[in-house]
C-alpha cells in the first residue's frame, strides 16, 4: 500500500478531509470543456438562442438575491418536515406489520401521482402560497424518505438484531444503538436523492401562484423574453444543487469513515 506523502506537516488525506468542498477533477474538466464549447457556439448563433457567458454573467449579477434565499428556505423547511414524517412513519411500519400492510398502498398511491397534479391540487385546495409549496414538496419527498428508510431498516442483518435482543434492550435503545446507525448510509443517500428532487419540484411549484423565488424569477424572464435571465436562473439552480450535493458528500464521508 502506498504511503501518504506529507504536505507541510500533514498528509494528503488530512488536507482533503479538512476541505469543505471537493469536486472531482474529471467533473471540473468536463464542465470547463462544455463552457468553452458554449462560448464558441454563442459566436455563431443568435444571442436569443445561445447567449454568451458575458451576457449570462451580467444577468446573474442582476438577479435578486432574496429570491434565491426564499427558495432555499422553502426547500430546507420542507425537507426537514419530510424527513421527520418519513422517519416516523417508517419506524411505525417497521414496528407494526398491520401499519405497514395498510400504509404501503397509500404510499404507493402518493408516489404514483404526478408532480403537476399535486401542484394543481394545492392551487385548488389551499389559499396561502407558502402552504401550497410546502404541501407539494412534502407530499413528493416524504414518501421517498419513508420507502428508503423502511427498506434500510429491514436490511439490517437478522444476526445483529438477534444479538442485540439477547441483551434485552429497551425499544429506544434497540433503535438508537442498532437500527438507526445501520440505516445511516441509506438515510444519507435518501437525502441526496430528495435534495435534487426538491430543488426541481420547488421551481415548478413556484411557477404557479408564487410572487417570490427562483420559479417566479423564471416566469418573469419568460414574460420579458430574456433568454439570458432564464439561463442565469438555471445556472443558479445547478450551482445550488452541485454545492448542496458536495456538502452532503462531505458529511457522508465524515459520518461513514468506518466503511473505508
Strand-helix topology:
Layout: E1 6-7, E2 10-11, H1 12-18, H2 25-42, H3 53-62, H4 65-95, H5 97-112, H6 115-125, H7 129-154, H8 158-165, H9 171-206, H10 214-223, H11 227-255
Antiparallel strand pairs: 1-2
Helix pairs in contact: 3-11, 4-5, 4-7, 4-9, 4-10, 5-7, 6-7, 7-9, 9-11, 10-11
What key phrases describe this protein's structure?
260 residues; mainly alpha; MetI-like fold; 2 domains; two-stranded antiparallel sheet; 11 helices; 2 strands
What does this protein look like?
- This protein has a two-stranded antiparallel ribbon.
- It is an all-alpha fold and about 260 residues long.
- The protein has helices at about 10-20, 25-40, 55-60, 65-95, 95-110, 115-125, 130-155, 160-165, 170-205, 215-225, 225-255; strands at about 5, 10.
- It has 2 domains: about 25-50, no CATH class; about 65-260, MetI-like fold (Orthogonal Bundle), CATH 1.10.3720.
- Helix 4 (about 65-95) packs antiparallel against helix 5 (about 95-110), helix 4 (about 65-95) packs across helix 10 (about 215-225) and helix 6 (about 115-125) packs across helix 7.
- The chain has 11 helices and 2 strands, in the order ββααααααααααα.
- About 80% of the residues lie in helices and about 0% in strands.
The CATH topology of the largest domain corresponds to MetI-like fold
Number of domains: 2
Please state the average pLDDT score. 84
User: What is the CA-CA span between the terminal residues?
Assistant: 14 Å
- For the record, what is the CATH homologous superfamily label of the largest domain? MetI-like
Amino acid at each position: 500500500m502506498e504511503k501518504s506523502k506529507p504536505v507541510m506537516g500533514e498528509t494528503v488525506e488530512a488536507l482533503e478531509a479538512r476541505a469543505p468542498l471537493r469536486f472531482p477533477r474529471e467533473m471540473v474538466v468536463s464542465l470547463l470543456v462544455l463552457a468553452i464549447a458554449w462560448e464558441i457556439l454563442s459566436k455563431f448563433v443568435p444571442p436569443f438562442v445561445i447567449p454568451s457567458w458575458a451576457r449570462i454573467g451580467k444577468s446573474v449579477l442582476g438577479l435578486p438575491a432574496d429570491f434565491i434565499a426564499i427558495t432555499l428556505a422553502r426547500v430546507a423547511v420542507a425537507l426537514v418536515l419530510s424527513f421527520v414524517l418519513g422517519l416516523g412513519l417508517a419506524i411505525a411500519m417497521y414496528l407494526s406489520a398491520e401499519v405497514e400492510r395498510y400504509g404501503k398502498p397509500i404510499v404507493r398511491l402518493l408516489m404514483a401521482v404526478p408532480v403537476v397534479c399535486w401542484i394543481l391540487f394545492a392551487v385548488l385546495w389551499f389559499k396561502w402560497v407558502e402552504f401550497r409549496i410546502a404541501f407539494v414538496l412534502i407530499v413528493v419527498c416524504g414518501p421517498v424518505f419513508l420507502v428508503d428508510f423502511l427498506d434500510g431498516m429491514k436490511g439490517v442483518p437478522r444476526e445483529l438484531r438477534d444479538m442485540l435482543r439477547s441483551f434485552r434492550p429497551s425499544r429506544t435503545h434497540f433503535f438508537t444503538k442498532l437500527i438507526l446507525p445501520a440505516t445511516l448510509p441509506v438515510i444519507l443517500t435518501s437525502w441526496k436523492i430528495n435534495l435534487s428532487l426538491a430543488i426541481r419540484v420547488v421551481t415548478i411549484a413556484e411557477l404557479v401562484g408564487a410572487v417570490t423565488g427562483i420559479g417566479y424569477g423564471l416566469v418573469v424572464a419568460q414574460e420579458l423574453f430574456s433568454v439570458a435571465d432564464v439561463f442565469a436562473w438555471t445556472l443558479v439552480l445547478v450551482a445550488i444543487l452541485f454545492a448542496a450535493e458536495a456538502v452532503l458528500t462531505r458529511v457522508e464521508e465524515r459520518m461513514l469513515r468506518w466503511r473505508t
